[in-house]
Each structure stands twice: as C-alpha cells, then as structure tokens.
Amino acid sequence: MENNIALSVKNLTKYFYEPETFQVLKDISFDVHKGEFLSLVGKSGSGKSTMLYVLSSMDTDYEGSLEINNVLLTGKTQNELAAFRNANIGFVFQFHYLLPEFSSLDNVMLPALKLGRKSKEEIEYDAMENLNLLGLNDQALKSANKLSGGQQQRVAIARALINNPSIIMGDEPTGNLDSKNTKIVFDIFKQLAREKGQTIITVTHDDDFAANSDLIIELQDGELLK
C-alpha cells in the first residue's frame, strides 16, 4: 500500500563541485515503510552522511526526487522545508547540541515552543512525559552541562521526539557512547518504531547496531549495494 511508505527516494544523484566535480551519490532509489528501523552503513567517504542530509531535506542540491509521507519535498522553498522538518522529522546527532546552561526540560521544550502548536503548559507536560520515557524524569531540572554523556544523548532524543515526528533521523547517534549507553539508545529507537510506529533512519559505523535494525542499506562509493 502506497500510504504505508514513510520515505521514498527515486534516482537520487548528487555531485560535489569543489575542488573538482565529483559524483557522491549515484542513481539511488529505495523506500522506507512506516515503523521501520533502517541503518545506513558504509565506509567513510561512501556517501552515507551526505545521503542522510538529502533525506532530511536540509540538502536540496541533488537530482531525483524525495517524498516523505507522500509529500513531494523536491522543489519546495527553504521556508517550506524548514516548516515541514520541524513538524515531521526529529534529529539526533553524534553530538547532542544541547544548550548547556538550560535545564533538560527547557532543552526538550524548545522545538515545540518554536512550532507553536500547543500551549507552554501542554509542551511542558509532553516534555516531562518524554523525559520519563527515557528514564530521565529525575534529571529534568538539572542543567544539561551537569549530565553524563549518555544522559545528554537521551535528552537529545527526548527533544527530537517533542513534536511527535513521524521520522527520526540519526547521524551516528551512538558514536560518542560506550556499549551500555549504545544499547540503551538502540532499545529506545526499537521501542519507538514498534510501539509508536515512528520510522527510524540512522547512519552508523556500529555493525552490531546495524545488524539488529529492521533494514540495512549499504553504500559503497555512492552506490547502493544490493
């Protein structure tokens, strides 16, 4: 069924032009279904992080087409894309990008305050629910710079979830974590996919992490390995 597809790319091709013309993605097509947990793997330089930025709609300089939730994003303006991202996509990076002096709770609330669809009280309630889901309700009022690395990354996930995005994208989301915290983050993603039907797309170098996800897409020299 077509409406079960969360993300669809067709004939995705991308070039870098500096210092010389180089084709980084070569005619890539695939679909990701709603509630699927996808790992993008490949050696450094294979094009996987570049592809994630195209999939996230932050990089619009490509050939081919990108659809998310049956909405064609190719050709939309930067303002339209920014509004779409804030409502539909949650991001988790290798580095947490929390505001260090802000509390965990305030960090989680920020994207929802920006979206402006709910009252501050509702957003605060949702943020506490997310922190609770991630086992961090007791850290809610602590400033982000007082948390451990694993706790900071879980706060970043709680923040990514605040607008109830249909897709969560991670760029090496466990890259700075030890094996214990990596497993915690993996289990959270698995739970979100299974229980909330959220689609997870992560770039990872971690073979165990990838092996346990639902779907693996491997890139080599900008091409999809079948």
Describe the structure.
- The chain is α/β, with parallel strands linked by helices.
- The protein has a single domain, classed as Rossmann fold, CATH 3.40.50.
- 36% of the residues lie in helices and 27% in strands.
- The chain has 7 helices and 10 strands.
- The strands form 2 sheets. A 6-stranded mixed beta sheet has the order 6-7-8-3-9-10, with helices on both faces. Strands 2-1-4-5 form a 4-stranded antiparallel beta sheet, covered by helices on one side.
- A hairpin with a 2-residue loop joins strand 4 and strand 5.
- Helix 3 crosses helix 4 and helix 3 packs parallel to helix 5.
- The chain is globular.
Question: Which secondary structure elements does this structure contain, and how are they paired or packed?
Answer:
Layout: E1 5-16, E2 22-33, E3 37-41, H1 48-55, E4 63-68, E5 71-72, H2 78-88, E6 89-93, H3 104-115, H4 120-133, H5 149-161, E7 167-171, H6 179-196, E8 199-203, H7 207-211, E9 215-220, E10 223-225
Parallel strand pairs: 3-8, 3-9, 6-7, 7-8
Antiparallel strand pairs: 1-2, 1-4, 4-5, 9-10
Helix pairs in contact: 3-4, 3-5, 4-5
